[in-house]
User: Which sequence fits this backbone?
């Protein structure tokens, strides 16, 4: 069996070593543009974050795609044959990390820490009214990430309402009641651009957005306008449409918008290897790989 490692921007070597140790009979190859059609045609499985353009049709023997992440949006390219199963990493520790990040950002905003940091630099000891402790949070997505986020927010005292495709509620209604909106949705054609000017207008004046999902859920120009105009009090964006976010992007310049470089939480190499190796073993035994996403739904 041959596997192709497309873990860029993370180095492939640790994955190759783990595979060599666990499954010495498997040949692991790091992707380079120099690989020939004949070499690529022998690949059974890939571990990938995304595909370089034109690669997928050259993987003529492909039997399994495993994402190196929880999200698979970059892998569901039209050229991928419909019968090839796609799996993802499901990592409870990563979910906890995401939840901690969201709680941190929500409390930081609720307790006005950016304001007190600014004041402290000016030796200003002014006090302001403390915001309601039981702020309402709408969590969009009730999957692995959204559920962990909702539980941890509730544990520190927020009132949480979760929303998803199957929850049967209208998004507008859920948004309208929230002081904080957390996006924990997968990126699909249905969720791309979901958070736009129309949705921001439906939120409470002064609501705060936290996005730990994918940048393309947000229409960023609309967000910039909504924060500048005061309809939203700000946003914490761990993900952006263009990553790395270019230096001239307006998102950097808006007071109240916090940018972090897609670091809310990462899975460890050990967990990714463990789940990939488990899938390869199943493939060797002719069994379906674990943690498959539904290719029709896109998550
Ligand atoms: N920032 C980071 O470092 C980081 C790390 C990990 C993951 N992520 C992102 O987080 C995303 C979510 O991960 P997850 O593990 O929670 O995914 P998941 O377990 O697949 O859950 C997805 C949730 O979204 C809901 N959903 C999907 N499409 C919808 C739609 N059109 N309308 C309403 N709800 C919809 C699903 O609804 P149903 O329950 O009704 O099916 C489900 O509740 C990933 O796809 C990834 O992009 C980011």
Assistant:
């Amino acid at each position: 069996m041959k596997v192709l490692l497309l873990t860029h921007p993370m180095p492939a070597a640790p994955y190759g070593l783990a595979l060599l140790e666990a499954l010495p009979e498997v040949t692991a190859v790091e992707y380079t543009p120099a690989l020939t059609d004949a070499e690529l045609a022998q690949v059974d499985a890939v571990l990938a974050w995304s595909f370089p353009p034109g690669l997928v049709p050259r993987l003529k023997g492909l039997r399994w795609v495993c994402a190196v992440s929880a999200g698979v949006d970059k892998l569901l390219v039209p050229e991928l044959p419909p019968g090839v199963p796609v799996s993802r990493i499901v990592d409870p520790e990563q979910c906890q990390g995401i939840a901690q990040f969201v709680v941190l950002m929500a409390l930081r905003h609720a307790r006005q820490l950016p304001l007190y940091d600014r004041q402290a630099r000016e030796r200003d000891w002014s006090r302001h009214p403390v915001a309601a402790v039981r702020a309402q949070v709408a969590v969009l997505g009730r999957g692995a990430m959204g559920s962990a986020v909702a539980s941890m927010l509730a544990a520190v005292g927020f009132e949480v309402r979760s929303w998803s495709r199957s929850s049967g509620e209208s998004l507008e209604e859920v948004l309208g009641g929230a002081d904080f909106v957390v996006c924990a949705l997968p990126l699909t054609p249905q969720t791309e651009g979901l958070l736009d000017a129309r949705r921001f207008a439906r939120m409470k004046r002064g609501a705060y957005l936290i996005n730990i999902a994918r940048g393309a859920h947000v229409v960023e120009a609309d967000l910039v306008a909504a924060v500048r105009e005061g309809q939203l009090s700000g946003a914490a964006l761990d993900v952006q449409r263009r990553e790395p976010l270019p230096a001239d992007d307006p998102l950097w310049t808006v007071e109240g918008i916090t940018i972090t470089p897609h670091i809310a939480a990462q899975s460890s190499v050990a967990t990714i290897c463990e789940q990939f190796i488990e899938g390869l073993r199943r493939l060797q035994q002719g069994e379906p790989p674990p943690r498959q996403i539904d290719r029709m739904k896109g998550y």
